Structure of Bifunctional diguanylate cyclase/phosphodiesterase:
Amino acid sequence: AATRDGGDPVRCYEPSMGERAARRLRLIRGFSAAVARHDVRVDFQPVVSLGERTVIGVEALARWDHPELGLLLPDEFVPVLEATGQIAELTSFVLDESLAAARRWLDRGMRLSVAVNVSVGNLAAADFPDEVATLLAAHRVPAELLTLELTESGVSSEREVALPVLRRLHALGCHLAVDDFGTGQSSLAHLRRLPVDQVKIDKSFVLGMGTEYGDVAVVRAIVEMGHTLGLTVVAEGVEQAAVRVALAEMGCDVAQGYLVSRPLPARCFERWLDSLDVHPGEPGAAAGPRT
Ligand code: C2E
Ligand code: MG
Ligand code: MG
Ligand code: MG
């Protein structure tokens, strides 16, 4: 947006349909080369235990540093790659980078779990569990350190296709999480029928906890029902100290959010870890700054 000397009202730049289509095409055509050039990378956001206040793992989040378009976020490029089938290439890349990082941390005595987001398209590929097993073996990472995050809409819309694949992933020993919980159509009762270990409460509810009583009630209900079903409950989007306190009081198990740290490139994440008082995995390790 820009103001001109004449004092015109600020106008927001609205790309036309043609411009949007052209940008989309550019992403589709440029993706594989971008991976090869290392323009696509994985950032890691710490995940902390609310009870012990220790760092227990990370979520891997894809970024695309485009030479002309600047930093692209997954909300733009993931749907494009899902539509063309190129999502399989992104998932392979993110899994490989994440497991390599988990191995590096294990070699330094830190047992951190890594969570990778997967799309419905990944679950539609019958050989996906074989690929995961191959990568776990190649990096010598125990399966229980890998969590695969699926969106609620993903598991409910293509349940028939996904279920055998989910069962095989679970049989490998990987953990499965339902992401963005609360925004979709499915209920916790429906989750009971899936081989799922974790629910991640959508950040919109967690962000709202500071101001909306309704959001506090929704979060409390998800925590209670999740526990009744034997699931680990994760809150994402924790930005305020008061919200972290409220979540801990509700018995929510795990938190992730800007309060602890934004997603960081691997090197920065490792420096951040080093800056903590105690190493993760050890009793008494600090979960980020105490605010
Ligand atoms: P998600 O899996 O729900 O990931 C959490 C998103 O919330 C991330 O956005 C993260 O940066 C953001 N976030 C974390 N803490 C806070 C907070 O305290 N406040 C706020 N406002 N936001 C917070 P990001 O990285 O832009 O990713 C967006 C979505 O893109 C992800 O949502 C996930 O669904 C998808 N995604 C990211 N990486 C991948 C990938 O490798 N493969 C696939 N299939 N999807 C991915
Ligand atoms: Mg996720
Ligand atoms: Mg989410
Ligand atoms: Mg999301």
